[in-house]
Amino acid sequence: MKIAILVPNFVEFDGSARVAEVQAEELAREGNDVAVFTFAAGIRPENVEVFVMGMPRSLFLERVYRLLFPLDLFKALKWLPRLKGFDEIIVHLYPLTWLAWLAKKRYGAKYTFWYHGIMDPQFFPRLYERVYIRLQILMTRLTVSNADRAVGVSRAGVNELKRYTGLDGEVVYNKVDLGKFHPGVDGTKVREEYRLGEAPVVLFVGALRPVKGVHLLVESFNIVKQRIPDARLVVVGQADYPYYYERVKHIGDDAVVFAGFVSHESLPFYYAACDVYASCSRWEAHNLPVLEAQACGKPVVTFDIESFREEVGDAGTLVEVGNVQQFAEACVERLNQERS
Question: Which CATH architecture has domain 188-339?
């Protein structure tokens, strides 16, 4: 079969891109002719052709362009014919759902929509951000209206998909690479790089954006330090919202390490270096870092949201959403258990 995979950012820091990468590699190994269409690429899977369509490089202009992509008639006229002849088109996220909608109309290709979730507007502090997300939900609903198949990455994701679009989806969970993420990885180099020594370490991995609740995590960690003064918090992830990053940095002190973007190849060593993995995220459709941390044998502490209930195992702790004090106490308990 000829299969096209459409994903807006085929780059390492994007969670949907990591899922699309694994998907492309698996389909290619099965003998399919697989091509990826994307706005930007930094991933090059073996035996998979990658087509880069381009977009503005400014973060602000990129977001505007993605929202208004259906108005770019030149791009549609250029790339839509490239989808002719594909048996199936799998799309990860709007706005490339627009090309799949057109290809389904014109060429009759099977259209599969792979839903990774859309952040709830209520978690964004600025009006223009909430408007942007609401428009994204609207455009997603319109451009998946003729999809043949819908897939959500969790039961929580399928429920959200139904609420936003009316589509009934099936659950296909994201996969963790157990060849990379497993107990026994040596985290010594990470501890040496950030001068962590033998300090108890709490780790978070994810984009620095309001919905992830990183500010709540840092507030909670400040309470943890009152009980465990030598504890350290390592935050791994790209700062998508500069104003939010500045806010989070202001809350913390030198005990909080902002590592920035870390490659997927290096992530196992960060999990290995920590004692506890923690997330105060208030929304997720599915969260790979929680699964990766557990695969590495680390206990996790998260807020009690629907998706984390699916992911957090017996070695984890679910805490009332927004309860920073209780979250800190759970982290202290886990750190003490790991250090005893």
Answer: 3-Layer(aba) Sandwich (3.40)
